[in-house]
Each structure stands twice: as C-alpha cells, then as structure tokens.
Design the sequence.
C-alpha cells in the first residue's frame, strides 16, 4: 500500500549495510509524504540512497494529488541532498550511472514513458553532477533551463532562429549543487541579453529563484524573466492543453 515513509527507511537501512539502494516512487509522494523520513534517516546521516521520483512537475493530467509542482522547493533546503532534473533519455541514462558512482543522497526527477532523445544532436554532450552545459549560443537572449523545459528551450531556439533571433540555451540538469560559475560566466558574457529561466516547477522556490539569488548576491543586473508553473494547484486534463494553459509549451516559451 501507500508506505513511502517505510520505503525510505528501508533504503536507509540497506545503505547502512553497504548497498546502493535506488528508491522509487512518484515525486509528489517522495517530497510531500516522506520528507521527514528522508531528512532524518537519509540526508542527516549522509547515506548513499538514490531517490527516484516519477511524474515531476506537470507531467501528469491527474491533478494536484499527483502533480509534484513544488518538489524542488521542498528539497532545496535539505542539506546533503543533490537534486537532478534530467532533460531527456540521454540525460536519464547518463545520470543513473553518475549518481550510482556518486557517494551521498541524490534525488532525481524521472520522466516516464517514451522519453525522447534530444541531447544526441549535441556532439560530445555528457551529463556531470553539478555542471551546467551550454547547448546553443546566441546573443539575443539566454534561456537557463532544466528537465523537460530544456527540450522546450531547444525547440523555441530553433524556431526563433528562423525568425532571425539567436537564443542561447544553458542546460542546468543539476539544481543542487548549482553550477554558479558557469551561470555567472554565461550571463556576464552578454550583459545586455535578457535572461529567462525555464523550469517544469512552480515559480516559487525552484531553479529560477536559485539563479535570481545568485545573480543578486554577485551584483549582476540583467533583465530577468521566469517561465514556470504558477503558484497554485493545477487542473486535471490532457497534458498538451495544460502545458499551453500554464505556459510551459514550446509555443508559450516562444511568446
């Protein structure tokens, strides 16, 4: 039955015995229901448990009970916990190996079903924990993105290029620890270029606020915009309709 608290405790026990448990459930249940157990049994003890959360953000039409729109906000404040938001099947495949080799607790937002391979087109791309990767260069605007929104950012950049606009895409697959140096270097490279942060997550407490905090602390002043889910419980329905409604479809990113 529904026993995510026990699931996390079992993973902690296995890690104490030297195993590398991959603990899987829906993102919404890992973050909302099992938070205290992850915090005290896994993160505080810095145990080598890998938590895999399916259906992150708005990737299900089942409504608020299954939409983990605030999981990153919930987990960002937890010490010792690495947070990964992969873009596609390439990222997922590589990140599983990377997190297996990494010693410490990790939370990964898992895309489910027939996940496309988008990053294959970028020769030499490799996923690395804690590293953001520039996929496309452009002087007119910069999109910093994670998860499936990197797919949207690439599609938007391709379409906008046909209209004479060159939009850069910086893929930030690791939300925590944030690759602060790469982000600062890329933003400073074209200081007049507007910065958009695109994420499949609430505009509260996710990647965008993390980037905004970094830029403010470093005294970097840019035109800054968020592309993300609103701070509200979202509707149930067909995903294409919901993605348009809540502003994370490719069409809405281009707007």
Sequence:
């Amino acid at each position: 039955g529904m026993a995510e608290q026990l699931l996390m405790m079992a993973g902690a026990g296995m890690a104490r015995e030297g195993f590398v448990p991959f603990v899987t459930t829906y993102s919404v249940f890992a973050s909302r229901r099992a938070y205290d157990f992850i915090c005290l049994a896994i993160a505080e003890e810095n145990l080598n448990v890998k938590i895999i959360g399916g259906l992150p953000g708005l990737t299900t039409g089942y409504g608020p009970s299954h939409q983990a729109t605030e999981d990153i906000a919930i987990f960002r404040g937890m010490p010792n916990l690495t947070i990964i938001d992969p873009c596609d099947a390439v990222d997922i495949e590589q990140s599983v190996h990377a997190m297996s080799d990494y010693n410490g607790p990790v939370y990964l937002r898992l895309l489910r079903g027939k996940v496309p391979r988008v990053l294959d087109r970028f020769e030499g791309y490799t996923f690395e924990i804690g590293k953001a990767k520039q996929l496309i260069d452009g002087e007119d605007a910069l999109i910093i993105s994670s998860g499936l929104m990197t797919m949207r950012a690439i599609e938007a950049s391709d379409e906008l290029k046909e209209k004479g606009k060159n939009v850069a895409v910086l893929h930030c697959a690791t939300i925590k620890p944030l690759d602060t140096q790469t982000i600062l270097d890329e933003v400073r490279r074209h200081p007049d270029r507007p910065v958009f942060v695109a994420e499949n997550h609430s505009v509260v407490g996710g990647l965008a606020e993390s980037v905004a905090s970094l830029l403010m602390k470093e005294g970097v002043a840019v035109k800054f915009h968020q592309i993300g889910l609103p701070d509200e419980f979202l509707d149930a329905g067909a995903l294409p309709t919901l993605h348009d409604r809540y502003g994370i479809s490719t069409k809405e990113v281009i707007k």
Summary: The longest helix spans residues 148-162. The mean pLDDT is 98. The first strand starts at residue 22 and ends at 26. DSSP finds ten helices and ten strands in the chain.
